[in-house]
Structure formats: structure tokens, C-alpha cells
Specification:
α1 packs across α4, α2 runs antiparallel to α3 and α3 crosses α4. Helix content is about 80%, strand content about 0%. It has a domain of about 100 residues. It has about 180 residues and is an all-alpha fold. It contains seven helices and no strands.
Amino acid sequence: MKPSLFEIFKLYFIIGLQLIGGGYVIYPLLKKYLIEDKNLLTEDELTDYLAISQCLPGIIALNVSIFSGYKLRKIKGAIIAVLGLLLPAFLIILLLANIILTYQENQIVKYFMFGVRLSIIVLITSMLYDIFKKIINSKFSIFIFLLILFASLYANISPTFLVIITIVISFLKGVNND
């Protein structure tokens, strides 16, 4: 059964309230609310939306929300998901911007920001672990992963070019196996 537009707004508003730290943090939140709690998406769909969103221009969390909202209720679902996701951030930033900018040298604010940064690392690592288990499942995928990882770390190659190389290699491997 399709969720109502209000339910989509409410889910993404709740996610937006918790979305501290950037685009990748949305993965564990969407996994919890849309897959585990509501069974509205599959983990494969969410992983695909994240992968595609990473390759597109724009904000990753916003792109993933557009894809997942569209899956739930087409154009209206995408629009409502984006509004629900963005509204908490807009309101919170509006309320906190002056406070944080005024007191950024305050030790309590520094402790707060340190805690936020640490929690973001945990959320991103959790998301990477989930995706890694799903995608790195053969000798070929391990080889490609290590190849692209070392190329990104040690060669001066554009991330966009690395994505294109990975897609071409995967396509050629798939074509040769068919």
C-alpha cells in the first residue's frame, strides 16, 4: 500500500531532523524508517539510489530523497520528500546560526561540535559497511574495489573519471559473461 503524502512528509521531516553531517548520513536513517520500520523500499533500491545520487550533481541526501520519494508516490512523492527533508534543516539553521556564530569559541560549543563530528564518522562507517557487504561479494568486485581505491588515494585522477572507469569495466565484464 502506498503511503499518503502526509506520511511521506512526516517520515522525511523526522529524517531531516536527524540528518546531521552530510549526504551519507541519510542512508542509515532511510534504511531504518523506510526499509526496517515501514517496508516501503528494498535495501537494493536504497543502495542503488545512493550510488546514482553520488554520481549526480547536487546534494546527495536531497538526490536520494528525490529518488525514494518518486518511488513511493511519483512526482508528488519526490516533491513532498524534499520539502519534508529540507524544512527541519532550514528551521534549525535559522534558529541556531546566530548562536553558533556568536559563541563558536565557547568550550561547550566546541565539545558539541566534536561530538557531532564523531557521530557522523560512526554513521558513515555504518553505511559503508552495509553497502560493502552487499556489493563486494566476488573476486572481481574485490579487485575493482581495490583498484579504484588505490587509484583514488595515490593517483591524481578525477573522481568522475574513476566512476566512469568502474562503470566501463563492470559493463565489459558483464558483456563478456553474457
